[in-house]
Design a protein that fits this description.
Layout lengths: L4 H10 L1 E4 L5 H10 L7 H6 L15 E3 L5 H4 L5 H11 L4 E12 L29 E7 L11 E2 L26 E2 L7 E5 L4 E2 L9 E11 L17 H9 L2 H5 L13 H10 L10
Antiparallel strand pairs: 1-7, 2-3, 3-9, 4-7, 4-9, 5-6, 5-8
The protein binds 2-oxoglutaric acid.
Length: 287
């Protein structure tokens, strides 16, 4: 369906955009049903939190890197609907995926409060451009209802902080911006698009028995190789990655830096050996 001109304008002006119920209900339900492959359900966790000490080790302990254990999860970050929006925001059809993470948080496990920060700090070794050229698009895809009590991210719309130099990763005086803070509350299936130079922070989960499940996927233009979070080949030995690469199309593979059809990388030898590495991959488009 794509974004309207005013939505794109809002994204650039405020630095974020929320699309409620972005995921098709069936896709959302299928993804939610597979979360148990990585996490205890909230009911099970809250029945006996001491059985899951790992979630109390750090506020980032609930992060699981892409690829995940089910295609019902993996397919979401390469879906045509999502890529269409990413291409609109990044103003090119030539994009890469720079991050894929699942994140579970459970009330009581640990304090999830963070400082207001801009994400570029650990997405690149350089700094964002003021003119927004070569920007990165970061996203949250909600897999559970997210409310203030369940850890809705706090964010300061960009127009209030744009005067702060882009080399600054953290807000020095949060109180100054108190009146401008919003909490990104939205139902499961919603998509949050935000830019890597917008101040935001994780917050504590206060609701008794509360939890939050989200998927995080980031995208950058191919002509900005200095932006990255994951080196995809690092996950190349995993069965999930093999099956995922076999299952997706050429455009989706290119998001992970697999050269497109027509690229000089492809020759008789690479085709033959790729088939050995990925037995179920249809290599016809590359021949
Ligand atoms: O979990 C959240 O709500 C935000 C997390 C975040 O901004 C971060 O870890 O960089």
């Amino acid at each position: 369906m794509g974004l309207s001109t005013s939505q794109i304008q809002q994204y650039h002006e405020h630095g974020y955009l929320v699309l409620e119920h972005f995921l098709d209900a069936k896709i959302l339900a299928a993804a939610q049903a597979q979360l148990h492959l990585h996490y205890p359900t909230p009911a099970i966790y809250h029945k006996n939190p001491s059985a899951y000490p790992e979630f109390s080790a750090s506020q980032f302990a609930g992060l699981v890197n892409f690829p995940w254990a089910s295609f019902d999860l993996n397919r979401i970050i390469v879906s045509d609907d999502l890529l269409e929006l990413v291409e609109q925001i990044l103003e090119t059809g030539d994009i890469r995926i720079t991050k894929g993470e699942l994140w579970a948080k459970y009330q009581g496990a640990i304090n999830y409060d963070q400082m207001f920060h801009r994400d570029f700090g650990n997405h690149t070794l350089v700094v964002p451009r003021e003119d927004h050229r070569w920007k990165e698009l970061t996203t949250f895809i909600y897999l559970s209802d997210v409310t203030k009590g369940n850890g809705a991210t706090a964010l300061i719309p960009r127009q209030h902080t744009d005067h702060i130099p882009l080399g600054s990763r953290y807000l020095e005086d949060e109180n100054e911006f108190e009146d401008h803070v919003i909490f990104i509350e939205a139902p499961a299936g919603s998509l949050v698009l935000y830019s890597y130079d917008v101040f935001h922070r994780g917050v504590q989960i206060d609701t008794p028995g509360g939890y939050r499940f989200m998927m995080l996927a980031d995208y950058a233009r191919r002509d900005a190789p200095w932006i990255d979070r994951h080196a995809w080949p690092h996950h190349g030995g995993r069965k999930e990655m093999q099956e995922f690469i076999e299952s997706i199309n050429v455009k989706q593979r290119n998001l992970f830096d697999i050269p497109p059809p027509g690229h000089p990388y492809w020759n008789a030898q690479t085709l033959k050996d790729m088939q050995i590495r990925y037995p179920d991959m249809d290599l016809t488009p590359y021949t």
